[in-house]
Amino acid sequence: MSDTVAIRVDGLQKSYQQLQVLKGVDFKVARGSIFALLGSNGAGKTTIVRILATLLKPDGGRATVNGFDVMSQPAQVRESISLTGQFAAVDEILTGRENLVMIAKLRKVADPRRVADDLLTRFGLADAAGRRVAAYSGGMRRRLDIAMSLIGDPPVIFLDEPTTGLDPEARIEVWQVIQNLAHSGTTVLLTTQHLEEAENLADRIAILHDGTIIVSGTLADLRELLPPAQVEYVERQPTLEEIFLATIGSKQVQR
User: Fold this and answer.
1) Domains and CATH numbers, the chain
2) What DSSP character marks residue 239?
3) DSSP symbols for 204-216
4) Which H helix or E strand runs over 124?
5) N or C, fewer C-beta in 10 Å, the chain?
6) Helix 138-149 vs helix 112-122: angle between axes, to the nearest 10 degrees?
7) Mean pLDDT, rounded, of the chain
8) Residues facing 235 on adjacent strands
9) Model's pTM, two decimal places?
């Protein structure tokens, strides 16, 4: 595997009884980039994340994370990653600092309190460090959840629909956190149904539909799939939402 590639997926397949969810998925993610996996409910986004995180075995194909095979080297993969699900996995009874210290101790990180304080500052939670998480806003909880995921400095982080249930202001807070992760060199694989989220954050975008990746590339690449912008009073480029709906629609017509 090239040192420039953090995640590689080749021909990934997965079925649940008679339902084939993944029908041969292929993509790769560059190190230090944000890769957005777009798809409707049931498209298979979470299934891909669970396979890459070694929580689920594929029926076929191959996947590597940080140079390690998810099937033959699961322990090394787990040491390389962190996973944040759709809902913040924080203990509401504990304070923000106590949550971080607890995870740091479980991961046997040196000087857990220093690590906790550094992350609280980094994620803008230092002023709320001594408050119970039950009193945090949705955006604060999600920021704390992502901070907990970064303990131990994993080179790859999976964010499975990280802004689910958040209001617009909290979503923007989380977007800033995700951008900062990539700027610091962390590779981020982001699954989302929010097209605006992918449009604002991702270096590359893949659309998952009917068990396969039907288009993949930068936002500029995807815009080229639609007719050129028409000049009326102003020139307007197609949004990612328009690209997504047009692409999905064309695939459904062809079937």
Assistant:
1) 5-254 (3.40.50.300)
2) P
3) EEEEEETTEEEEE
4) none
5) C
6) 130
7) 88
8) 231
9) 0.81
Q: Minimal CA–CA distance to 41: which of 209, 157, 252?
A: 209
Over residues 116-169, the pLDDT tens digits come to 999 999 888 999 999 999 999 888 888 898 889 889 889 999 998 888 777 777
From CA 209, how far away is CA 76, in angstroms rounded? 30
Tens of pLDDT, residues 84-115: 876 667 899 999 999 999 999 998 899 999 99
| Tokens 């001594």 belong to residue | 130
Q: What is the 3-state secondary structure (H, E, C) of the chain?
A: CCCCEEEEEEEEEEEECCEEEEEEEEEEEECCCEEEEECCCCCCHHHHHHHHCCCCCCCEEEEEECCEECCCCHHHHHHHEEEECCCCCCCCCCEHHHHHHHHHHHCCCCCHHHHHHHHHHHCCCHHHCCCEHHHCCHHHHHHHHHHHHCCCCCCEEEEECCCCCCCHHHHHHHHHHHHHHHHCCCEEEEEECCHHHHHHHCCEEEEEECCEEEEEECHHHHHCCCCCCCECCCECCCCHHHHHHHHHHHHHHHC
Picking from 153, 185, 146, the residue whose alpha carbon sits closest to that of residue 6 is 185
At 238, which helix (H) or strand (E)? none
